[in-house]
Amino acid sequence: MDKVESAKKAAAFRAVDNHIKDAHRVGIGSGSTVVYAVERLAQRVHKEGLKVTCVPTSFQARQLIVNNNLILSDLEITPQLDVAIDGADEADNKLTLIKGGGGCQLQEKIVAAAANLFVVIADYRKNSRVLGEQWTKGVPIEVLPMAYRPVQMKIESKLGGKAILRQAKAKAGPVVTDNGNFVLDWVFDRTHDWQQVNQEIMMIPGVVETGLFVNMAKIAYFGMEDGTVKEL
Ligand code: 5RP
After folding, report:
1. ipTM of this predicted structure
2. What pLDDT score was predicted for residue 134?
3. What average pLDDT does the chain have?
4. Gene3D superfamilies, per this entry (predicted)?
5. Which residue of 4, 11, 76, 167 pairs with 121 in a disulfide if CB–CB is 3.0 to 4.6 A?
6. Is 51 exposed, middle or buried (0-12, 13-18, 19+ CB in 10 A)?
7. How far is the CA of 30 from the centre of ligand 1 (A)?
C-alpha cells in the first residue's frame, strides 16, 4: 500500500476506534478514505459484536454499508446521529472544509448536521493553513440543472474566480449528482470569509448546497507521511 493510502487508512481506523461505541447511530461519508472507516467499522461490528446503525451520504456509501453487512438506515427512521465520519478535500486550521470532490456535498452536509459529532478523516495532503493551498479544483456547488448558467454568472460577477460546470469523463456531458443536480466547481482567486461567502452563494436562486462546511467539524484525523496520525 502506498503512503497516501496508508495515511487514509490510519486516520480512518483511529477515528472509528476513538469515536464509535455500541448502539451508535453513525453517518457514513463518501469517498476513498471512508472506505477504510467502513472496513474498520465492519471489523468491530463482526468481531466485537457492536450494534451500530449506519446512515449513508451517497449511493457509494449505501453500497459500502450493504456490502459490509452493516445495518442500513436513513434519516427518516434515524433522524439523529451520534457520530458522522467523512473525508474532506481540504481542511484549514479552524476545520473549515471544502467537500464534494465526489459530488456528494448535499447529502454529506445534511447527514453531518444531523450528528452530535462530525469527525473528519483525511491524509496529510488535505491539511492546509488556509483553503486553496492544496485543493485547486475549487468549491463544489450543487445547482439545479436549469439554473446552472445564471448561477455561474452571478458567482463570477459577485465573487470573482471561475465557476466551472463539472464534466463527466469521456465527454459524456455534465456530472449529475445522486440528487439529479449539476455541480459548479468555483475556483476562487483570493481568500474569503468562508461563512459569509457560503451564505452569499446559498442566497442565489438555483443553488442547492455548497461544499463549504463552516463550523461543522469538531475533530479531524490526518494520516501523516511518517505513519503517525495528527489530531486537530
Ligand atoms: C465526496 C467528498 C469526499 O469526502 C472528499 O472528496 C474526499 O474524498 P477522498 O477521501 O477520496 O479523498 O466530499 O463528495
Report:
1. 0.98
2. 85
3. 96
4. 3.30.70.260, 3.40.50.1360
5. 11
6. exposed
7. 6
**Residue 146 pLDDT more than 90?**
yes
Q: Please answer whether residues 8 and 33 qualify as being in contact, where contact means their C-beta atoms are separated by less than 8 angstroms.
A: yes
Cβ of residue 108 lying under 6 Å from some atom of ligand 1: yes
Unique residue bearing C-alpha cell 451517497: 58
Predicted local distance difference test score (pLDDT) of residue 138: 95
Catalytic residue check, 108: yes
Report the pLDDT value the prediction gives residue 171, as an integer from 0 to 100: 73
Map grid coordinates 469527525 to a residue. 119
Strand partners, 97: 91, 213
Test site for ligand 1: of 5, 6, 30, 209, most ligand atoms within 8 A of the Cβ: 30
Q: Kind and range of the H or E element at 6? A: helix 3-19
pTM: 0.96
Q: Which is it for strands 25-28 and 81-86: parallel, antiparallel or unpaired?
A: parallel
Residue 135: the pLDDT is: 83
Is there an atom of ligand 1 within 6 Å of 140 CB?
no
Residue 223 near ligand 1, beta carbon < 6 Å: no
